[in-house]
Amino acid sequence: MLDDRKLAVLRAIVEDYVSTNEPVGSKALAERHNLKVSPATVRNDMAALEEEGYITQPHTSAGRVPTDKGYRLFVDRLSQVKPLSAAERRAIETFLAGAVDLDDVVTRTVRLLAQLTRQVAVVQYPTLTRSTVRHVEIVPLTERRVMLVLITNTGRVEQRVVELPEVVEDTRIAHLRAVLNASLDGCGLSAVPELVADLPERLPAEDRPAVATILSVLLETLVERHDEKIVFAGAANLAGADFTTGLRAVLEALEEQVVLMRLLGETSGDTPSALTVRIGSENPYLHGTSIVATGYGSGDNQLARLGVLGPTRMDYPVTMGAVRAVARYVSQILAAS
Amino acid sequence: MLDDRKLAVLRAIVEDYVSTNEPVGSKALAERHNLKVSPATVRNDMAALEEEGYITQPHTSAGRVPTDKGYRLFVDRLSQVKPLSAAERRAIETFLAGAVDLDDVVTRTVRLLAQLTRQVAVVQYPTLTRSTVRHVEIVPLTERRVMLVLITNTGRVEQRVVELPEVVEDTRIAHLRAVLNASLDGCGLSAVPELVADLPERLPAEDRPAVATILSVLLETLVERHDEKIVFAGAANLAGADFTTGLRAVLEALEEQVVLMRLLGETSGDTPSALTVRIGSENPYLHGTSIVATGYGSGDNQLARLGVLGPTRMDYPVTMGAVRAVARYVSQILAAS
DNA sequence: ACTTGGCACTCGGGAACACAGAGTGCTAGA
DNA sequence: TCTAGCACTCTGTGTTCCCGAGTGCCAAGT
């Protein structure tokens, strides 16, 4: 159905349209890409491509524009991810290496990605679920209040103030801390609930109310912050582009954690580190935008996802290259710390 | 020069223009606000107001539009802050009361303010400088690494991983922690540098390199995070408005902490809790936008600033009311926790 | 069977134009 | 000092017209 030349025509249409933002006609096509055929032939191929739904024309007597289906074919079969230049890679590396803590890593990553792709970058905070406990700290604040601090191997720190049901002496707090650390140190977060289940029984009866309170807060922290936090940057890059959905809708989605989460997509089972591309109407909620995303994290231990969001008309090869590269570097950084 | 009626005309022009977004003419003015005078008289007054630079007309034979100077006069003398409805106040209270930690308070505040004013809300994190140390924790991670956690009385937690120059035993770490807490507990952050200055000398000589490293990181934490972090929300509200500066410039400013900081403005010496209004060209960097901001924090202890950013054409009385109310509630919340 | 040149056709978008309506400034009168 | 009337000046809108890019189709060429 689609011979090689038709595919070449489609590729040329996508490339031209992405770079000029104007419907591309048969004549210009035949000239700019050396297709060795006349405009008339190109027209025939275009008619076929339109018949199949890969391209469309905004109005009669205008050039052709790729459809979502056209972009999809382009991404899947006609393009290859464009690697970054050596200079860009060095820049990424040094920029990310300067991060002082996890917050800083995420902030720098999202800005870097936005600047690199000139689009909106989105980064999900490393999920707690797969990380492990490095340390649990309980700090007495007042007689009836303690601060619970949970430190994970990814450098993440979660803290909560806990109101105790009764006064508990500091020495008992210290004991609890020791017990907690002894049983939890190094274990996966998902294993925490079982591990602490019988803890109250192993402690003096009079401490049980306080321990129960502390543990419930601890468990709450684990589930609540599960994979909730997502940040974005580069909203200014939206100013130029025109979205079918409307700029407002896009900006609203960016501030809505839940929507953003859906957009980034779940890690696709087998190969979470693969690039996911969602084009236009393939997106939940936000039709008219495209998303290039991937998981990041060290090797088999995928922590979370990051990606960029932009208009359907985007330079996919370059964007995919940037996303992949940034994901790799940030994974390295996280693995090292 | 400007009698009462002229002021009334100016007020009417501002109010009408803000609500309709169209240049307002003499006829409509005389009708809608019962000024008891004819359009011709209003015209004369308008001519005088224009002469003085309070209003201007986009083109000959269009209505009048307030200038920055006109808005300024309106805000200073012709309007009064509009208090929120009881329902709104209750909504604020319950919404903010649900916050679990400082991050959550700030996030909720900024969203609330954005929703309430239908503009972009900006909130600066409570400044460390004026808060006090509640606890310092040093957690051994590996032989050569510790995590330094600083907890302040505002519930803020700063953590840093510190690489030690040499192996230090846990018991010595514990000792250092005890000493640090003993000398710093409850003291203002600004006093920390002096208090720790002679600390290395009071400890065994072999610990000094490690202690020096830890202390330098601690001090760095204090200055670096000084008043750096600012968050915003409600960018979607920009979609409708039209800025002379261009939407792109506004979005860029929002992601630039330094610019944002300048925009929020320094606390004006004597009465930091007073509302600051910057109109159009009075703004550094971002002409064509207005900012309504105020300090927040309990009473004399102002912690930071918050406010909203919007087009010059905004409903100042309502916006000012919302900003003031939110600042008060968030101050309460912070004082209580 | 595919490619090519020719040709008529179709729209979109810009230029030219007219026109209604809102709003103004000015002057003369109450 | 205010008001009424009037001539004037714009903007925005609707209409018309026309150019040109681009197409689809057909017949001829390879």
Description:
- The structure is a homodimer.
- The first copy, chain A, is of the alpha+beta class and about 325 residues long.
- The first copy, chain A, is about 45% helix and about 15% strand.
- Chain A is built from 12 helices and 10 strands.
- In chain A, the strands form 3 sheets. A 5-stranded antiparallel β-sheet of chain A has the order 7-3-10-9-8, with helices on both faces. Chain A has a 3-stranded antiparallel β-sheet with strand order 4-5-6. In chain A, strands 1-2 form a two-stranded antiparallel ribbon.
- The interface of A and B includes residues 139, 159, 233, 247 and 255 of A.
- The structure holds a DNA duplex (30 and 30 nucleotides).
Quick description:
The structure is a homodimer of 337-residue chains. With 337 residues, the first copy, chain A, is α+β, with helices and mostly antiparallel strands. Chain A has 12 helices and 10 strands.
